[in-house]
Design a protein that fits this description.
By secondary structure, this protein is of the alpha/beta class. The chain has three helices and 15 strands.
């Protein structure tokens, strides 16, 4: 994995596997076969333009401490897979827009969110927009929030479809720990804290690159 520190607002990246860092609002033009990983504590807004005939795997971890806007634009004949993780502190709002302006795209928007403590509140609005005069697009929103502490998470999945030739669906789940899973882990000798910690890590770390897992686990230790 190549580590890049992006100094400019506008950047163009081509085929590769990148761990990126930046400290300001960023716009990215992406082309080819790319994997981008990023760990963000500044909550800088993000704009991505995915070129024709491209494949993007996006792994973004946010330690949320203010409102955030993410805009993704997909052109033609491309695949977009996102893995967003939001570890929320405070009262914050995230707006995500996925703009499908071309045809023959496959987009899988995966999102996982938790709050730090019972006083935290998080609102997420995720909107997939498929423009008119496009065809053969597939859009799936898989959005989940875990509430380990009776805090507040609100997720709004929106799909704005302006054509008949599209497959679009969304799934939203918000809840606390699965009690049957907790019971099973306790029968194996784990105490309540360890059982919940294991479930929390499972919820967040699935398919996440190793470069980000250690950072996530360090943050999760501080969550109630």
């Amino acid at each position: 994995m190549n580590k890049l520190i992006l100094e400019e607002d506008n950047n163009k990246l081509t085929t590769g596997n990148y761990l990126i860092e930046y400290y300001h609002h960023i716009s990215l033009d992406l082309e080819g076969e790319l994997t981008l990983s990023h760990y963000d504590t500044k909550n800088n807004n993000l704009n991505i333009n995915l070129a024709d005939n491209s494949n993007l795997n996006l792994f973004y971890v946010y330690i949320l401490n203010k409102d955030l806007n993410i805009d993704l634009k997909v052109n033609n004949n491309s695949i977009l897979n996102t893995n967003f993780i939001f570890l929320n502190t405070g009262n914050n709002k995230v707006i995500i827009n996925i703009n499908t302006i071309g045809s023959n795209n496959k987009e899988n928007i995966k999102l996982r969110a938790i709050n730090k403590n019972k006083d935290s509140k998080l609102e997420i609005i995720c909107t997939g927009i498929v423009t008119k005069n496009t065809c053969d697009n597939e859009l799936l929103e898989d959005l989940k929030g875990l509430i380990p502490n009776n805090s507040s998470i609100k997720i709004s999945p929106n799909i704005e479809v302006n054509t008949n030739e599209v497959m679009a669906n969304h799934l939203v789940t918000i809840g606390s720990f699965d009690q049957s899973s907790l019971f099973y882990l306790k029968t194996k000798g784990l105490d309540d804290y360890m059982a919940k910690s294991l479930l929390l890590k499972s919820f967040l770390l699935s398919n996440i690159p190793a470069e980000l897992q250690e950072k996530i686990q360090a943050e999760v230790i501080e969550f109630e």
